[in-house]
Amino acid sequence: MPRLAALSLILAALAGCQTVPPTNVHQPMTVRPSPRPEAGGANGSIYQAAYARPLFEDHKARFVGDTLTVTITESTAASTTSNAKIDRTSTASASVSNVSRLPGKSLLGLGLDASSSNAFEGKGNAGNKNVFTGTMTATVIEVLPNGNLLISGEKQVAIGHEQEFVRVSGVVNPRFVDASNTVPSSKIADARIEYKSAGQIADAEIIGWLARFFLSVLPF
Predict the structure, then answer these.
(1) DSSP secondary structure, 49-109, as one string
(2) What is the pLDDT of residues 139-192, one digit of tens each?
(3) CA distance readout (Å), 53 to 138, 173, 196
(4) Rounded CA gap, 196 and 168, in Å?
(5) Distance (Å, rounded) from C-alpha 42 to C-alpha 81?
(6) Is-contact 39 49, C-beta < 8 A?
(7) What tens digit of pLDDT does each residue of 72-102 get?
(8) Helical residues (DSSP H) of 146-207, grouped into ranges
(9) 10 Å Cβ neighbour count for 137?
(10) 25, 167 in Cβ contact below 8 A?
């Protein structure tokens, strides 16, 4: 009985576990700010030189650990159309005239006609359209030597038994960041934007490993 109870608990725990979908965004997806050297001046009870910003300095992200708001405005559309048509016709004829003094008299007067015709016509159409909009905040995980910012972030939203994961990463030129510390996704280099889910609905959309095996080996 103790073994059966332990097995039941393990099965219940496994049933309640949700697998986090894999990701291709830049890692890590968050970092802690690194200590900054004191910019001069002594620390006080309120003033801390390491975290102070000049009075007229903007508040755009520029250091590791700073946050940056990303406006996701991805819209892609693609279509292709192809047509192919091939025609081929050939005709051949031969005859043996009724000429005297030729061997094989049984073939005299024999005629041969042959013809062939091939035709091929193919058409294809394909279209794809994707729209992805939203807003999320990412963290600066590295400052590149030229001043560009490598950002990465993840947002998790749990709705009932389903979990939604929105992830974004890429390289941002600080000049593209506006006064509100926001940058559109269209101005992020090497952008990697994901929207994935985990839960019962997501699991139902995945083919089981045994079914995938048979799909890969069956010829029909």
Answers:
(1) GGG---TT------STT-EEEEEEEEEEEEEEEEEEEEEEEEEEEEE----SS-S-GGGTT
(2) 999 999 999 999 999 999 888 878 889 999 999 999 999 989 999 999 999 999
(3) 21, 21, 38
(4) 12
(5) 70
(6) yes
(7) 988 888 888 888 888 777 776 766 555 555 5
(8) 200-204
(9) 15
(10) yes
Determine how many CB atoms are found less than 10 A away from the CB of residue 26: 20
How far is 23 from 139, CA to CA, in rounded Å? 17
Tokens, residue 121: 């016509």
| Sheet with 67-95, side-by-side order of all strands | 182-184, 67-95, 111-143, 149-159, 162-172, 188-198
End-to-end CA, the chain: 48
Q: Six-digit token pair at 125?
A: 């159409």
The CA distance from 40 to 68, in Å, is: 27
Distance CA 61, CA 182 (A): 9
Q: What is the DSSP letter of 185?
A: G
Q: State the residue for tokens 């593209």.
A: 176
Amino acid present at 43: N
With left for phi above 0 and alpha for psi between -120 and 50, is residue 134 left, alpha or beta? Answer: left
Nearest to 191 by CA among 173, 217, 214: 173
Percent of the chain topping pLDDT 70 = 64
